[in-house]
Amino acid sequence: MGLIAKETIEQVLAATDIVDLIGSYIPLKRAGSSYKANCPFHHEKSPSFNVSPAKQFFHCFGCGKSGNAIGFVMEHEGLVFMDALKKLAAKAGVHLEEEPDDPQARAAKRSRGRLLDLHREASAFFHELLKTEPNCQHARAYLKSRGFGKEMAERWEIGWMPENPQTFLDWARSRNFTGKDLVASGLTSLKDENRPAAGLYVRFRDRLMFPIRNEVGDVIAFSGRQLREDPKSGKYINSPETDIFKKSNVLFALDRAKKSILKEKTVILCEGQIDAISCHEQGVENAIAPLGTAFTSQHARILKRYAQTAVLCFDADLAGMKACERAFRELAPEGLSVKVVELPAGDDPDTFLKAHGVEGFRKEIAEARDFFDFKIEAGRKSGRLETAEGRTEMTRDCTELLAVMGDYAARDQQINVVASMLGVGSSTLRQNIGLASRKARAMAERTSTRENPNQPEEEFIEAIPLDRTVGYLCNLAITSANAQHYLNEQFENLHMAKPWVEGINLLEKILAAAPDPESNAAVNAFVSSLRKSEQLALHQVMGGVELKSEEGLQAAENAVGMLSSIVIQKRDAAVKAALKEPGISTERMISLLEEAKVIAKALENSPRSLYDDELPQETKKPEKKPWEKWKK
Ligand code: ZN
Prior knowledge:
The chain is α+β, with helices and mostly antiparallel strands.
């Protein structure tokens, strides 16, 4: 098995919120700045299991288990590191790419990186144009006419592609992007496939550019909205599929919506991107939109990771109704419950929000009808149920739709509802559904990834011994950039302390890897690269100490001073003990006395009392001295 790039592990951790994750396994209760629960790993009556959203790790004061999101999944599901990582990566939509060891794979990875760079930079460029270019008054005016101001454009990094393609091509050249890069990105194509010298055709012209992002927020494509009527071209056009953009894997705004979807267990599915943006701007943050009309089973599978219920919020016309049914056919097999919001005819979420405000909209969402209720009601309104043929047709439709539902308990309930609404016998309906669902299942045979059944035996791992002061320094090194820099300059002092205090190796590892203290993901990725016994030791000293970044340096200086004192004291004790050894040679005696002199001098200059009383100021209060509490 190849290696997983450090960045990928960081990406997975960055895309995972440990509170949401653990909250999806066990009920968490907020307690100040962290969350508490009864520990899932040992039996207890009062909660000693803590989850820190700031540090993105968990720790149980009862049984000592601790770790990051990956560690939790490993522990809770009995998975090995790689399987837990895979699981979280799938949940977060991060593609796990093993470090390629052949040149071809490396090249592919590089070109992916290049495409991401191009999209990121182009997005910023288009956005800058929209903000500053005098020629795009009309683009800004259009946004304004839709009720969107400058802040909204900034939040979504909306941009403008000029009419003149040369502007973009010149910019790309100035940024050293080649024609090949541009064609690979889909932003341009070759005017003549057989004759590259004929030049490049720029796909978007005079359009508002909406960046399309993947689940972790990288720009991977654009959606361009027409600004001038042009019947030859669509109102919206999207980038074509590329190495980094697969339409069926991408849902607009999911990167922003996923936390809220997880929290609400509900996703609001809008028809267009503007609708989704409108919802977010008004604080309805669990809204997303597919790109174009196609909603695929892959989309449904992605949403299933986050939501239990999908609320469809499509236009109230025939096309909208058909879109609802198509979405139901994809969502229901995944076991998602599907509801439909009926906005007044002619309204979409964008116009509705503007007319009725967010409260009105939330009310509509809360009153969304179950899919079958909506469908049958629509049939009733259209007069379809007034004829025998119409009722038969509706029954057949509903039978087929009920048959695709993946949640059998919910289906059973729906069967009764549908039977009574249509006035048909529920047992007949059930029979027909049985037939139809066997047919549907056979067609929808899907490959499903199974959990690793070979759960590893739980092994007993003990934390490495870690001197308290060294532990404190370890914590500083991963929480404060200032402290980390300072400690890196102290390598000599630290090296000298190595024979005398425990855990310097771990501290040196931290300093060598220098994970960015500002990034929980970087720190977590680093921690998970350590041996389990080191992780355990580290988790026991992590957290608790909340320092402002500028305090880190002072704290580190104090603690290094403390460490030197400890070392001196230990050396002092060792020399004194050695001098008392019987049969000691004169030579050794002299060298020991020499050393004793040096030590005595150093002792004069070092703080008097060592451990508890003179630990750095910040650590005096008991709640800020995690090792006291955690030491067994
Ligand atoms: Zn526990």
